Amino acid sequence: MSVFFDSPISEDLVAAGDAELLLANIGVTNGISATESGEYRQLLAAVHDVAEHILQLPDYVARADTEKYPREQIRRPLEEEQDFGHAWAHRFLIRGNPGGELLRGKTVCLKDNVAVAGVPQFFGTDAIPAWTSDSDATVVRRVLDAGADVVGTTICENFCNSTSSFTSAQGTVHNPYAEGYSAGGSTSGGSAVVGGGLVDIAIGADQGGSIRVPSSFCGCVGLKPTHGLVPYTGISSSDAINDHAGPIARSVSDVALCLDAISGRDDFDDRTLGAPIHGSTQYASSLQSSIAGMKIGILTEGFEHRLIDENVKATVLKAVQSFEQLGANVQEISVPLHLEGPAIWTIQQRIAGTLGMMGYAHGRRGLFSTAYEAARQPWTNETFQKLFPSTKNTIINGLSLIQNYPGLYAKTMNLVQQLRDSYEELFQEYDLIIMPTTPFVAPPNVDWKRGDSPMEALKPSMGITINTAIFDVTGHPAMSLPVGFAPSSIDPSVRLPVGMQLVGGLWQEQKILDAGYAWESANDWKQIGVSGVQGQKLPTKL
């Protein structure tokens, strides 16, 4: 019983019949009798009083150390300060610890769903006002401690709900290798400025492929670590099961250095309870170019999906040959359940993602952004109309699934466990499995405007995550490695980067990094598949 029940209760917060109306919303129309109604109203008013009391308490915030790490020149970039279309959300400078060693001399940008104290956050939308955090995300503090300079936040797609790069309300991002083509999403801006050579490292977030897809399109190395290896504190969530943060860089060694800097247990994030102690990993110093004896599986289902472009398939298979030349034992393998991954991810993400968007996420310990919650709730006609179709679709899908299939989420999560177990069994025999990151190279961006067809807005993203989303629900580490160029299906004279995805067992990042480092040391990916006219690299100022 509430301790507030013995105090005067504000029954004016609850009208007569409210309890019955609430039950009617879930199909219960005769759950309480007329004689019980008044008492349930009184109990409902009591819990409303408790809610009002909680809202009046001061919030608990891990405030940023802005004296040690002052923020300089925070600004929304002018057009002449933009790169690759509109890759930047905000530009600023936070100088890293001069005594930091891991990332000394490196520049880092952050996806615009990563909290930086004093910097407004858009989250790719104008449906709600930008909000400003008092805290730095854990990964921000860690890269600063490691000596990196943080130089800005970069565009992310609308509520992180797209793998295209034209859905952000803050502008379109172009591929650094061909103007007018997608940079991928939802970490679009970060991948563009890293792939274009302007910033050393981007920190992105990945719920269905949002690190690996843009890395594949932009010629970057992008790692989605094991779920919980990198803290998610201070990063806007889609769903706690799918939430992953990780590095994007132009080399495996920089990815490994950043992973050492940002990984490890965080007292605020219960997802990290199984992670190593922060500062104890040695991914970068342990890198080795010898993979002799490593056992690698070519996942048949990852290559044979009907959406896989033949040129992408051929480029990745050619890259696999290099592993054989380096002494690895490469074999074809099959996991039939892999083909069910997109369907399983879709149901899990639509239901859990909708609950998060509606403010109903629960079941995790952590520090959460009350400023973000205040900005996005409640949804109204005006705010919903401003959402990009992919975000609208998520909410519509989720609400329908919750209403019509009340036991579906439980069944889906059981299948997630089956998928996870299937891969873990495979990793008892194989060190890694390999497949294309994306089924095709970057498609053209779409000049979509509000009022245009929702289906036309969604088409460019359809099918892109057939090989990536599955490892978000299973939590396995996966890295996209650039392995050459392939022609655009729209214009064969335009050649765009191809990504090969390396997937390892849970907590086996070192094997992935070693294999990627060995391949990278033996090959120059920019010289593979460049016959014909390669997409012209954009100037830094469009």
TrEMBL record:
List, for all copies, the residue spans of the domain called Amidase. Answer: 102-513
GO MF, one example: catalytic activity
Q: Which residues form a coiled coil?
A: none
- PANTHER family the record matches: AMIDASE, TRANSAMIDASE
Q: What is this protein called?
A: Amidase signature enzyme
